[in-house]
Amino acid sequence: MDLWCCFGDSNPANHLAGWYAIDVAVAGDYAYLACGNAGLLVVDVSDPEHPRDVGRCKAPGSAHGVAVAGGYAYVADLDSGLHIINISDPQNPYETGCCATAGFGWDVAVAGSYAYVADFGYRRLHVIDVANPQNPHQTGYCSTVGTATGVAIVGTYAYVTASDSGLRVIDISNPQSPFETGHHDTPARATGVEFVGSYAYVADDTSGLRIVDVSNPQNPSEVGHCDTPGNAMGVAVVGTCAYVADGGSGLRVINVSDPQNPHEAGYCDTPGSAVNVTSVGGHAYVADGGSGLRVINVADPQSPYEVGSLSNPARPLGADVYLTAYGFTDSVACDLFILKYELANRSGSLLSQVYFGLSLDGDVGDGTDDMAGLILDKLFRNGSDTFRVRNAGYIYDYNNSENPGQSWESGTPGAVAVRLLAAPHGLGLTALKKYTIDTDPVMDVDQYLTLAGYDYRTGEYHPFDSVDLSAADKRVLLSSGPFDLPADSVVFYYAVVGAKYGEPNQTPPNRDSTDLALRCWWAESVFQRVIGIEETPNAEVRKPNRGATIIRGVLVLGRVASRQNTAYRAELLDINGRKVLDLHPGANDVSRLAPGVYFVMEYSAVSSQYSGPSVVTKVILTE
User: Fold this and answer.
1) Can you give the pLDDT at residue 168?
2) Alpha-carbon span 547 to 265, nearest angstrom
3) Which of 227, 381, 430, 618 is the most buried (most CB within 10 A)?
4) Is there a contact between 286 and 274 (Cβ–Cβ < 8 Å)?
5) Measured between alpha carbons, how far is residue 486 from residues 7, 370, 438, 489 in Å?
6) Cβ neighbourhood burial of 38 (10 Å; 0-12, 13-18, 19+)
C-alpha cells in the first residue's frame, strides 16, 4: 500500500521561479514560450548556445499555447480564451486585443486573418477573426466530440487532435459554419498534430507517433506508426524527420521518409518533461516544462545533442507539510491508523483556490485486479444500531481471493479505505477520482484539474468516480477544496482502515460493505476520543502548537484541565490511546509511569464515553 499527499493552488505554473514552458514557437531570431501564469516569454535564440530572456507579457490567466504570425503572437489561455500580443519590439511585447472562449484555450493556429483555438473544456474548435488585432471576434465553432488538444491548419481544413476521440478533420472554408468532414480514432490520447504533404502526424500519448493519410478528408486512415518510450505530447516535422516531445523521455527523432515504416533514428533526453517542440534551422526547440527551453542540435538525426538552454530553477511553493501518524494496539483500533497533515503557508502571500488530498494505491492482494469504491454519505445497520459514514474511499480486490501465505496471509484480501475525518473551513470530501498507472496525471495542469474534480483527459467535471466496472492496478485520490490559505496553517486528519470485504470469490455487486463501514465509523470514534480534540480539528485555521504541560511525578488535575469541577470521570491515556490511570481531582501520583507524551481525558456530566470527552489536554511526563 502506498499513500501520497497531494496539494496544489490555482495555477501550478506559478510555482516555479518565473515561468514554466508549455508551448514554443520560433520566428526569426526569437522563440516565444507559453509559460502558464507567467504569460508569454520572448527569448533571443540568435545564438542557440546562449538563449536569452529579453521580454515578457503577463497573461491574465494561464498561457498554454502559442502561434506567431505577422508581428503578433497569438496565445491560447486556459482561463480567458485568445490573447493577441504585439511583438514588433521583442523586448516590449504588449497585448493589443483578446477574445474570450467558452472553455479552456489549449492550443492555437493562425492562417490568413483567422485564428483557430482548440478548446479543451467545451470540446470545440473556435474560429476567430483577427483581421483587426485590436478587436478579434468569434465567427463560428465546430464540436470536436472529444476535448480539443491541438490544431493544425492547411488550406480549407483544420486538423484537430481530440484526446480520446483521435483526429478530427474540419472543413473551415466557411468561417461562420465550420463542420467536420471525417475523423480517425487513435489508440491512445491524441494530444498534438503537425501536417506535411498529405499526412497528419499525431502525437498520441502512450501510443507514440501515428501517421494518418488525409488525402481524402472524408476518410482519413492510418498508414504507419512508431511507438515511443514516454508520452508523446507534441510533434514537429521537417524534411524526413518528425521530432516528438515525449514527456519524461525527452526528444525522440523519428525517420518518416517512408510514412508506412517510420522508425526512431535518435533521441536526446531532457531534464524535465518535454511537452511541445518546434524545429527551425537545424535545431529543435523543446518546451520542457519546469526545465524551461532546451535547444537541441538535430543536424545529425542519429545523434541529437543539447547545445543551449534557458530555465529558472524550481522554486518551492512556499508551503510546508508536516505529517504525524497515530497507531493503536487495542482490539477495536488495531486495524487502523490516523494521519494528521498540517499545511503551513510560509510564502508570505495568499495561496488561492487550494486543494489538498490523499492518494491511495492499495495494491490489495497482488495489486493487479483492484477495484475502487466510495462511501460519500450513507447510513448502515449493525444489528439494531444505525450508524453513518461519510467521506471514505477504498480499494478492494476484484475476486477477493489470493493464494494464502503469498501476497495475503488469509487468502481473502478484503479492502483498505481512507476516510477524511476533519478538514478546515468545514470542508468535506469534494472529489474522489480513480485512475491507473496508465492514466496517472503527469502534467501540473492535469494534476490540478484532477484535484479539482475534473477528468483531465476530457475536461468534464465529474467529482466523484463512484462506479467502477473493471479491475486493474487502481489508485484513488480523495480531494478537498477549494480554499484560500493565508500566511497561516490548517490541519487535515485522515484514517487508514483495513477491513474484511465480502466472502472469497464473491463478485463486487454482491458484497456486504457493513464491516468496512463499521471500521470507518470506529476510526472516527477513536479520533474524537483520543486525538481530535487535542488539536481542535474543527478550527478553520490553526496557529503553531503551544507547548504541552510538563509533569514531574505528580499530576494535579486542576492545573492541567479546565473543567475539573464539572468532570465526573477523568482518565490518563498513553500515546497509543490506552488508558493507564484513572484520575481524580487534585494530586495524582504518576511517578511510576514511563516518561513520554500522555493525554488527560475529562468527561463532563453532559458527555459520555461514546460522544467523546469534554476536554483533552496533552501532558509530558518527565523523570
Assistant:
1) 98
2) 63
3) 430
4) yes
5) 15, 39, 36, 8
6) buried
SS3 for 34-97, per residue? ECECCCEEEEECCCCCCCEEEEEECCCCCEEEEEEECCEEEEEECCCEEEEEECCCCCCCEEEE
Mean pLDDT, residues 481-510 taken together: 83
Q: Please say if the pLDDT value at position 371 is more than 70.
A: yes
Which run of H or of E encompasses 604? Answer: strand 596-604
Phi, psi of 509 (to 5 degrees): -65, -20
Q: Average pLDDT, stretch 135-162?
A: 95
Sheet architecture: strand order including 2-8: 2-8, 351-361, 474-485, 431-436
For the chain, how many structural domains are there in total?
3
Other Cβ atoms within 10 Å of 342 Cβ, number: 17
Give pTM, 2 decimals.
0.61
Q: Which of 59-63, 137-141, 346-350, 484-488 has the highest mean pLDDT?
A: 137-141
Of the two residues 397 and 124, the one the predictor is more confident about is: 124
Alpha carbon distance 578, 198 (integer Å): 74
Instruction: Give the per-residue pLDDT at 157.
Output: 98
pLDDT at residue number 612: 43
pLDDT tens, residue by residue, 150-162:
999 999 999 999 9
Tell me: pLDDT of 542 over 60: no
Contact 586, 556 (CB under 8 A): yes
Neighbour count for residue 379 (Cβ, 10 Å): 9
Nearest alpha carbon to residue 441 among 333, 359, 332, 331 = 359
In a domain, 540, yes or no: no
Residue 267 belongs to domain spanning:
17-310
In 3D space, the residue among 125, 229, 126, 127 whose CA is nearest the CA of residue 183 turns out to be 125
Do 583 and 457 lie in a common domain? no
Residues 401 and 351 in one domain: yes
6 belongs to a structural domain: no
CA distances from 147 to 107, 123, 370, 453 (A): 11, 4, 28, 16
In a domain, 437, yes or no: yes
Question: Residue for cell digits 540568435?
Answer: 46
Q: How far is Cα 356 from Cα 350, in angstroms, rounded to an integer?
A: 16
Phi, psi at residue 534, to the nearest 5°? -55, -45
- pLDDT mean across residues, the chain: 84
